[in-house]
Amino acid sequence: MTVRAFISGCASTMFSDEEKRFLSEACPWGLILFKRNIQNPAQVAELTRSYREIVGRADAPVLIDQEGGRVQRLGPPHWPNFPAAEKLALAADTKASVELGARLIANELTRLGINVDCLPVADLRFTGAHDVIGDRAYSTDPVEVATLARAAADGLMAGGVLPVVKHIPGHGRALADSHLELPKVSASAAELSRTDFEPFRRLSDLPLAMTAHVIYEAIDPALPATISPKVVNDVIRGHIGFDGLLMTDDVSMKALSGGIGENTKAAFAAGCDLALHCNGKIDEMRAVAENSPLLDGKSAERAKKALDSIASGPKPLDVAEAWSRFSAMIETV
């Protein structure tokens, strides 16, 4: 079956006829959901079912950003609020609280047909950096971040949900929000290796990662990681050793100065496997599709391996007991 190497958004809570035609013809690897796409559980389940019917793949990925704290697309009254990473890291049994919280997130997602979560955040927290990461980070310490990010990934996978580790090779030090402008990091290569890159090196066996729209001046002073062959090949694939499926952060973010098609093409030229486009604007979606290759070769192998890692589905869970235990873990922080 023909699959194109990009992830698409959509405009609203149901597909328009134009979107249905687009999805059927372009056949993106995945669909990503935002708050504009979410109304209630029955509606979200129907949207994910409809997407898979349109593209003709029962396991087609449906993604969401459900981290907890500031970044969670599902929330009250239909879904619980989950704590931010920083708060989970204050629990008495930190690793257990992070893993159980992710397992409970997965339980919410799988009931809706969502099988990929853009979690864990493996960026470090830096004093004085822009708060776009901030309390989304588990710690300032690379080893602790890697340990807790691993726990979150384990919790998601136990629940049948594929984790996306982000933002490789590290966004935490950035002084700007890449949604709005291009951050530049001036730290030396040695310092980046010791700090920012280290959590990702320890998580390099995870199946799926999202790039950072950040310039690391010591590595490539001209291009952000997402479109830098030097960062992708020398740092992400080389130094960090990540050989999983590599997706871009949103190619419509203002950190990337080119047009949507140009950004998409540049990401694939740099070595990314998938392009992510989030805003649901149909003209931009078409530009992404036109500049995305078919998913084949090594990228297709990585995509299959990633989905195979959750093919067995969720492990058994006593949901009421798990919620009781999780609540006790976090009630004092």
What labels would you give this structure?
333 residues, alpha/beta, TIM Barrel, two-stranded antiparallel ribbon, 12 helices, 39% helix, globular
Q: What overall geometry do the principal axes of the alpha carbons give? A: globular
CATH architecture: Alpha-Beta Barrel
- The class by helix and strand makeup works out as alpha/beta
Total domain units: 1
CATH level-3 fold name: TIM Barrel
Query: What is the chain-wise order of helices and strands?
Result: EHEHEEEHHEHEEEHHEEHEHEHHH
CATH superfamily: Glycoside hydrolase, family 3, N-terminal domain
Proportion of strand residues:
5-15%
What is the gyration radius calculated from CA atoms?
Answer: 19 Å
Give the % helix. Answer: 25-40%
Q: Major sheet, described briefly?
A: 9 strands, parallel
Number of strand elements:
13
- Number of helical runs? 12
Low-confidence stretches: none
Mean pLDDT: 97
Q: Name the CATH class.
A: Alpha Beta
Kindly, what is the distance between the CA atoms of the first and last residues, rounded to a whole number of angstroms?
49 Å
**Strand order within the widest sheet?**
7-6-3-2-1-13-12-10-8
